[in-house]
């Protein structure tokens, strides 16, 4: 017999609804008085350093993986669950939050704390300067994009690292003749291809061309320099500069870095973090002095200066306007980031902090040959262009990356690339 | 007489459905008429998103790729799953061992499967390179004209075991006396398969097809991982991925919601169409007298 019971299922239902409701309210609730919350990117090397510095100031660190982090910050900023301090890339990425009125202006803090403004390299500090105000302070090392090369391959081919674009093209032919892939490229991820056109546009038309695009909108892509840079990209691809299989090589799985270390490819344009990567993945390659690095080649007839760099100037800590621990958060960013111990820990971890006068400290630490070189590159650079995908608003950046991959694949012509981007 | 269970027994399912399916769908429909970058409040913009969708070449291409993926997966998966399923329903000696091997992909998570194939097809260090020969020259994930079919292959590899399981169960339920009668009448194995097994499996074929069609419309994670988000370029950027990139890289939540609504409508429409055309809803028994 089947006995009907009204009460039992009802209890189950109530319990279930309660459980669901609990899900909705879980997650940290920020009350005043508790430790201020700092959100940052997961990084096995940097996280312990950040944690020490944050907890020393009475805060708490929460970390997230790269893509989830960007989405989580986006959704959280402006909600009651927003962090007090958060890690970001500066530039247009930060500007979207500033325009939405979510970010605290740190200019008064910089002005009222003596020596704070001079503590950081100006080109890096400017990365978080929006409409003349500072909205973030650099909290880690500089990551300019550098042309890495395999010294063994260059020696056995009897060639020198490229100084000019023409040198680079000749090297492409030389290595192709020896059946070596001239340049490694992790082309399944558009941001690796982005580095090439960023540098080329800087060399062809100067840094103003992109700044104009960023400040005045997509019509700026129509500048003839963009077409020329895109044409140079296509020439390099068609010449076989990146070999034939770059389209499915990924950076995250180490594809491009490994073929450089194994001598299957001669050069690799990558952010300065590549050094630490190689040190971890192919320690002998770095320790036996086989990994070389040079500035991106200059371009004869180009309007741009040969000393500009592109990449990520640094990462920044910004403070949300809605923070309930504004004072504690401000005190933290104004004292902890140029703290001697913090800077030294960054250096020991292989980072190149954007702090003035650390050259001597870098020289004393491990990997000094590389880190001092990086420091000098940025110090003398006339401009430090932030990676375009971080400097443009998210919707434009996404379209630009899609078109760029199509350009590298030969699916669209340089002219079609320009037209698609100028359309906005 | 046995009473039907009280409505309350369905309440938890209804509550879950309302909270996690119906409510989000209503919100997505609302968002599809707004412009929202994820910050601040959504701004109503009328039918702008829909006008943009009608004019968006990339969206058409993405829908086209989804259609290709749907047709290819159906055409490839159905015969394979049907044959293995019917075979696995039999009583051969090797059946149990081989069946367990065939079902292995079912035990792996989608992310694991996608990563596995990504590594195996790596253009520098993959298994295809180690094997060498002509196989090593094919850019399975790097050639824009091949990548989508590689995705279809991996999806097939992943889901054939599941559909095999459906067919195995259904084939087991076919009464043996049908086959005995056919044998007496002198029908061979092929005739028995065509005239008994296939008609008896009709509703299973429909169920499995609907699952495949709707599944292809919503496939996402495999492609995201396998081709780094629809690469090379946009060669494998299917509709759900295009929606995801618009929403969560470009943060055009309003426009992405418009695509989501379109996917819901197309998905529901397709499964209704399949049910109507095949007479699935009447659920007539294929077995006389039952």
From TrEMBL, chain A:
<feature type="signal peptide">
    <location>
        <begin position="1"/>
        <end position="21"/>
    </location>
</feature>
<protein>
    <submittedName>
        <fullName>Carbohydrate ABC transporter substrate-binding protein (CUT1 family)</fullName>
    </submittedName>
</protein>
<dbReference type="InterPro" id="IPR050490">
    <property type="entry name" value="Bact_solute-bd_prot1"/>
</dbReference>
<dbReference type="InterPro" id="IPR006059">
    <property type="entry name" value="SBP"/>
</dbReference>
<keyword id="KW-0732">Signal</keyword>
<dbReference type="Pfam" id="PF01547">
    <property type="entry name" value="SBP_bac_1"/>
</dbReference>
Automatic annotation (TrEMBL), chain B:
<comment type="similarity">
    <text>Belongs to the binding-protein-dependent transport system permease family.</text>
</comment>
<feature type="domain" description="ABC transmembrane type-1">
    <location>
        <begin position="63"/>
        <end position="274"/>
    </location>
</feature>
<dbReference type="Pfam" id="PF00528">
    <property type="entry name" value="BPD_transp_1"/>
</dbReference>
<dbReference type="GO" id="GO:0055085">
    <property type="term" value="P:transmembrane transport"/>
</dbReference>
<feature type="transmembrane region" description="Helical">
    <location>
        <begin position="201"/>
        <end position="220"/>
    </location>
</feature>
<feature type="transmembrane region" description="Helical">
    <location>
        <begin position="146"/>
        <end position="167"/>
    </location>
</feature>
<feature type="transmembrane region" description="Helical">
    <location>
        <begin position="7"/>
        <end position="33"/>
    </location>
</feature>
<feature type="transmembrane region" description="Helical">
    <location>
        <begin position="96"/>
        <end position="117"/>
    </location>
</feature>
<dbReference type="InterPro" id="IPR000515">
    <property type="entry name" value="MetI-like"/>
</dbReference>
<dbReference type="GO" id="GO:0005886">
    <property type="term" value="C:plasma membrane"/>
</dbReference>
<dbReference type="InterPro" id="IPR051393">
    <property type="entry name" value="ABC_transporter_permease"/>
</dbReference>
<keyword id="KW-0472">Membrane</keyword>
<keyword id="KW-1003">Cell membrane</keyword>
<keyword id="KW-0812">Transmembrane</keyword>
<feature type="transmembrane region" description="Helical">
    <location>
        <begin position="253"/>
        <end position="275"/>
    </location>
</feature>
<keyword id="KW-0813">Transport</keyword>
<feature type="transmembrane region" description="Helical">
    <location>
        <begin position="67"/>
        <end position="89"/>
    </location>
</feature>
<keyword id="KW-1133">Transmembrane helix</keyword>
<dbReference type="InterPro" id="IPR035906">
    <property type="entry name" value="MetI-like_sf"/>
</dbReference>
<protein>
    <submittedName>
        <fullName>Xylobiose transport system permease protein</fullName>
    </submittedName>
</protein>
């Amino acid at each position: 017999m089947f006995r009907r019971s009204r009460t039992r299922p009802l209890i189950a239902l109530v319990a279930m609804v309660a459980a669901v409701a609990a899900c909705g309210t879980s997650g940290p609730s920020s009350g005043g008085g508790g430790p201020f919350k700092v959100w940052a990117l997961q990084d096995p090397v940097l996280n312990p350093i950040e944690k020490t510095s944050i907890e020393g100031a009475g805060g708490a660190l929460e970390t997230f993986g790269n893509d989830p982090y960007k989405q989580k910050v986006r959704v959280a900023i402006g909600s009651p669950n927003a962090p007090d301090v958060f890690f970001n890339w500066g530039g247009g990425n930060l500007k979207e939050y500033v325009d939405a009125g979510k970010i605290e202006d740190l200019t008064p803090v910089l002005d009222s704390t003596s020596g704070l403004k001079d503590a950081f390299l100006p080109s890096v500090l400017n990365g978080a300067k929006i409409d003349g105000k500072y909205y973030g302070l650099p909290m880690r090392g500089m990551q300019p994009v550098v042309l890495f090369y395999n010294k063994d391959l260059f020696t056995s081919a009897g060639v020198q690292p490229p100084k000019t674009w023409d040198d680079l093209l000749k090297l492409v032919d030389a290595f192709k003749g020896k059946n070596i892939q001239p340049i490694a490229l992790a082309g399944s991820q558009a941001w690796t291809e982005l580095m090439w056109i960023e540098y080329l546009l800087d060399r062809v038309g100067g840094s103003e061309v992109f700044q104009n695009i960023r400040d005045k909108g997509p019509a700026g892509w129509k500048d003839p320099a963009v077409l020329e840079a895109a044409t140079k990209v296509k020439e390099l691809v068609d010449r076989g500069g990146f070999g034939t299989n770059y389209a499915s090589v990924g950076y995250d799985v180490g594809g491009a870095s490994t073929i450089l270390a194994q001598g299957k490819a001669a050069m690799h344009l990558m952010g300065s973090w590549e050094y630490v990567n190689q040190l971890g993945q192919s320690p002998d390659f770095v320790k036996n002095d086989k990994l070389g690095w040079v500035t991106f080649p200059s371009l004869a007839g180009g309007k741009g200066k040969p000393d500009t760099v592109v990449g990520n100037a640094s990462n920044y800590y910004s403070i949300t306007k809605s923070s309930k621990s504004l004072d504690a958060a401000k005190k933290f960013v104004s004292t902890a980031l140029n703290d001697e111990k913090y800077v030294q820990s960054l250096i020991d971890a292989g980072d190149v902090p954007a702090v003035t006068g650390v050259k001597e400290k870098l020289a004393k630490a491990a990997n000094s040959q590389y880190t001092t070189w990086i420091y000098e590159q940025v110090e003398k650079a006339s401009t430090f262009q932030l990676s375009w995908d971080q400097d443009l608003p998210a919707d434009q950046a996404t379209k630009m990356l899609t078109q760029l991959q199509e350009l590298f694949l030969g699916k669209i012509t340089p002219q079609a690339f320009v037209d698609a981007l100028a359309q906005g | 007489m046995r009473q039907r269970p009280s409505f309350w027994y369905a309440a938890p399912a209804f509550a879950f459905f309302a909270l996690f399916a119906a409510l989000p769908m209503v919100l997505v429909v609302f968002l599809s008429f707004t412009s929202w970058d994820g910050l601040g409040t959504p701004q109503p913009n009328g039918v702008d998103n829909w006008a943009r969708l009608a004019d968006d070449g990339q969206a058409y291409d993405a829908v086209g790729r989804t259609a290709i993926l749907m047709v290819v997966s159906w055409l490839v998966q159905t015969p394979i799953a049907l044959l293995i399923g019917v075979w696995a329903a039999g009583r051969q000696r090797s059946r149990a061992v081989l069946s367990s091997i065939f079902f292995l992909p079912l035990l792996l998570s989608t992310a694991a499967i996608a990563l596995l194939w990504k590594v195996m097809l790596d253009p520098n260090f993959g298994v295809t390179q180690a094997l060498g020969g002509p196989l090593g020259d094919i850019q399975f994930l790097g050639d824009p004209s091949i990548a989508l079919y590689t995705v279809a292959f991996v999806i097939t590899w992943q889901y054939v075991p599941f559909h095999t399981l459906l067919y195995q169960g259904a084939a087991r339920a076919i009464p043996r006396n049908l086959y005995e009668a056919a044998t007496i009448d002198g029908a061979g194995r092929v005739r028995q398969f065509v005239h008994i097994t296939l008609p008896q499996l009709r509703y299973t074929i429909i169920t499995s097809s609907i699952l495949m069609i709707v599944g292809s419309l919503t496939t996402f994670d495999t492609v995201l991982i396998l081709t780094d988000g629809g690469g090379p370029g946009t060669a494998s950027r299917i509709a759900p991925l295009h929606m995801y990139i618009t929403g969560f890289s470009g943060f055009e939540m309003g426009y992405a919601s418009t695509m989501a609504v379109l996917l819901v409508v197309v998905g529901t429409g397709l499964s209704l169409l399949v049910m109507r055309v095949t007479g699935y809803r009447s659920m007539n028994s294929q077995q006389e007298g039952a």
